[in-house]
Write a structure and sequence with these properties.
This protein is mainly alpha-helical. The protein is built from six helices and two strands, in the order αααααββα. It folds into two domains: about 1-100 and about 145-190, no CATH class; about 110-140, no CATH class.
Length: about 190
């Protein structure tokens, strides 16, 4: 017999967060694999990178529709390279990709000559058959050159941690609840 509708318990909230995060990390892996295979123009790569960085950081923020991952997922025991890359992704997401503002991004540049060059807006005029063609270029700060293989490695690492924690939590609930084999709906008849 199925249990009656349950309350949304902390365990359900945690499972939802872990499941969503696991799916997100795998989506980022697929997007990175796609980006590596495709010969994209610079603007397309920039847009794809922005989406990938923002998507990777989704489980670590608020307002994604589920509880954010705990701080344990921002610590990387013995993997300083992954920790540093995660921090770079977070900074890029917050300063350049998701909440881009020219003045905020400009402050991230370290050298005065870069700041000066970055601030320039270039306009090109060309008279072509009596028609004036105009082109312009606005520089955009890109804090991080997204390293797709490194991001794939980071996502695999995170997905493995999330999956281990999720399986442990589900097993613990399963054993306490004495559930028969079958399919259950999280928050309704499980747990």
């Amino acid at each position: 017999m199925l249990k009656a509708m349950t309350q949304i318990t902390p365990d359900v909230v945690k499972m939802q967060s872990l499941m969503a995060s696991h799916a997100i990390f795998h989506r980022v892996i697929k997007a990175c694999e796609y980006a590596v295979k495709m010969d994209l123009e610079d603007e397309a790569k920039t847009t794809l990178k922005a989406g990938i960085v923002v998507t990777y950081m989704t489980p670590f923020g608020h307002g994604a529709g589920f509880e954010r991952l705990g701080d344990e997922y921002t610590k990387f025991s013995g993997r300083d390279d992954l920790r540093d890359y995660h921090v770079d992704l977070e900074t890029s997401r917050n300063s350049v990709y998701a909440h881009y503002g020219p003045m905020k991004a400009k402050k991230l540049l370290k050298h005065p000559e870069l700041i000066k060059e970055w601030s320039k807006v270039k306009v090109t005029f060309r008279l072509n058959g009596g028609q004036l063609e105009t082109r312009y270029k606005i520089n955009r700060v890109t804090l991080l050159d997204v390293n797709f293989p490194k991001l794939i490695e980071l996502c695999q690492y995170q997905a493995n941690r999330v999956e281990g924690d999720l399986n442990h939590l589900i097993k613990e609930i399963y054993e306490k609840g004495n559930y028969p084999n079958g399919e259950y709906t999280l928050g309704e008849d499980f747990p």
